[in-house]
Amino acid sequence: MSMRLKTGLIALSMLALSSSAAFADYQLTILHINDFHSRIEPINKYDATCSAKDEAANKCFGGAARLKTAIDETRAALSGQNVITLNAGDNFQGSLFYTTYKGAAELYVMNALKFDAMTLGNHEFDDGEKAIGPFLDKANFPVVTANITLKPASALNGHIKPSTILTVGGQKIGIVGAITPDTAELASPGPNVAFTDDIAAMTEEVHKLKAEGVNKIIALTHVGYHRDMEIAKIPDVDVVVGGHSHTLLSNTDKSAEGPYPTLVDNPGGYKVPVVTARSYGKYLGDLTVVFDDHGVVKSAKGDPILIDQHFAPDQAMADHIKELGAPIQALRDKVIGEAAANIDSTESNCRTKECQMGNLVADAMLDATKNQGITIAFLNGGGVRASIGEGKVTMGAVITVLPFQNTLATFHLKGSDLRAALENGVSQVEDGAGRFPQVAGMRFSFDRSKPAGSRITDVEVREGDNFVPLDEAKTYGIVSNNYMRAGGDGYKIFAARAENAYDYGPDLADIAADYITKHSPYKPYTDGRIKDVTPAGYVAPAAQPKTAAGAAATAPSK
């Protein structure tokens, strides 16, 4: 759209506004978080638990106590206005608080933050129904997920609704939830829980809300930013508040993937604002939407709020967190080695390319099993969850990096199946999917411009001191984790084709800690074992043009 045409449309919109009854407009502020991942304590710039030294230097972000202050102060500043607070899932998994309390600590925090609605994330199912069941039983807010089906034996029955209707300022606001349909591959939901197509389920639920007279409908999703832009095209969806991909949207941060909000054309002839607020409680999403009397979004503007030292921690919350943290402090403080430099584990690296933490963990896995005839290590990039700073390394830091309690698993696999596994690993690299492979004992190249399933261009395996081409007819000894060996993150070929599969046992965090101790001070590195050979200038066809943030979003109807 040309600037002249865009300006003309905005002018027409303003003219229409001035000639209509102003009282018909309805303004709503949406505060939101996603992918909290048990970051109950403040985090540092590496997304790991912040040290007392960094806290004293005002270098910490997030934390439940600061987040509560930010929400409370923002609500107070908007006193008398229409405000709702939404949670887009993945509150579980990522710190010792979840490892220790299995959802009870996160339940306390989410109830204290007083969300109006939440959708489920895939990590809510990492422990089957054992953790999410008690959470749902005691949550003080509705939990909405349209594309989940429960068998009669499920303990979750009666606790999850496809949607809810909030009445705010005399207006009905429909909230429809969705979880990523591949949750069964990403987590361990158990036999009584299944997931259906997100768009189909949401479309049906939106239609029901519309039939009930609800003309303002928000999709609250845990499916990822790119999928959110498809959900924005569902008829009668007005706003999408998302999570899962840990995407930063911003109008000021140059590292952001897109503007906040990103406006997407709906087939109904109007624009839908899509928002998400990175992860780990570092930001509080803050979107203000103006609807006309038909429920059409006339404008949408905002920006995520950085939760930094400008927000004093809520004292009651901070005191309770300190109490919760006392029993795990000894384990967390145990020094197991030293890092000669920061060990990087940022998602933008470990889910798209070779990364330092991926090398560390993969090397540790291979080192622990090399006497068993194992020559290749295979790790999902999404399995490493935080970086480690330079200096002393504690067991708590290692568990924060590897919080899932996954254990080592060994098996044998033909070279052709190993290549297929690599294809799965790079199949969703555009979305920063956690299946991206970090490896040891091998090296490979991939080309994102090729169709998924045919992106691997070169594979070599180590034999002695040399690398030789992968022999697709040969059988190789592989070490992975029990989650991947069972088919997690799309690695179904491991479950289907693995020979001599054995869940070897040691926790991945223990293996990594032992390796750091053995090589202390550990020097992080990359060595070119993974290469992206995509032609320069290539743009993925799935990527959509980024729409200017805050532009008027007008339409005659929806």
What can you tell me about this protein's structure?
With 558 residues, the protein is of the alpha/beta class. The two termini are 21 Å apart. Mean pLDDT is 91; it is low at 1-22 and 543-557.
Keywords, please?
6-stranded mixed sheet; Purple Acid Phosphatase, chain A, domain 2; 558 residues; disordered C terminus; alpha/beta; disordered N terminus; 18 helices; 2 domains
- Report the strand count: 25
CATH class of the largest domain: Alpha Beta
Mean pLDDT: 91
**Uncertain residue segments:** 1-22, 543-557
Query: For the CA atoms, what is the radius of gyration?
Result: 24 Å
* CATH topology grouping of the largest domain: Purple Acid Phosphatase, chain A, domain 2
Amount of beta strand: 15-25%
**CATH architectural designation of the largest domain:** 4-Layer Sandwich
CATH superfamily of the largest domain: Metallo-dependent phosphatases
Oligomer: single chain
Q: How many individual helices?
A: 18
Domain count: 2
Shape, principal axes of CA atoms: globular
Q: What structural class is derived from the secondary structure elements?
A: alpha/beta
Report the end-to-end length measured between terminal Cα atoms: 21 Å
